[in-house]
Specification:
mainly beta; about 150 residues; single chain
């Protein structure tokens, strides 16, 4: 499997970078700002973490769909393929009357088994100037492991 290196700095959420130098520059800039305000403790806590991402998650509003990285074309283009995701604990999900038809009170407990799907088509996903991975208006994010989520309450 192919993977993409991602560099993350936790500061008011995750700040994601695709070059180590950009991440270090961000840390230096934020640390200088924090020190100028007298917040030395915050400046000392900034660090760059490296992630090795072999998967991609498509955000479909409140749903999430898993993909695997098949090939790294360049530092701004990857080829991905959808994964099969089998719900393992569907009988454990609790549905109640409400909403349009029902309400699932424990939908965050979903567990899936993932497997490659060689018959799925390939998508070329590109890193745009805003730092987002996109394909024809669809948004993707890098991930260290596959993730699927179905929002039963939408």
């Amino acid at each position: 499997m192919n993977s993409v290196k991602q560099f993350v700095v936790r500061e008011n959420g995750d700040n994601e970078f695709y070059s180590h130098q950009e991440a270090q520059d961000f840390v230096a800039s934020k640390a200088a700002y924090f020190r100028s305000k007298g917040w030395d403790g915050l400046a000392e806590n900034l660090e760059v973490q490296e992630r090795d991402c072999g998967y991609v998650t498509e955000s479909g509003y409140s749903d999430a769909y898993p993909y695997e990285i098949v090939r790294v074309v360049s530092d701004k283009c990857i080829e991905i393929r959808a994964l099969n995701a089998e719900l393992l604990n569907g009988d454990e999900l609790k549905f109640h009357v409400g909403g349009f038809s029902s309400h699932c009170s424990n939908q965050r407990a979903q567990e899936y088994r993932y497997s490659s799907n060689p018959d799925a088509g390939l998508l070329k996903v590109r890193l745009n100037k805003h730092g987002n991975w996109v394909h024809k208006g669809r948004r993707f994010s890098l991930a260290e492991k596959p993730y699927k989520f179905h929002d039963y309450n939408f």
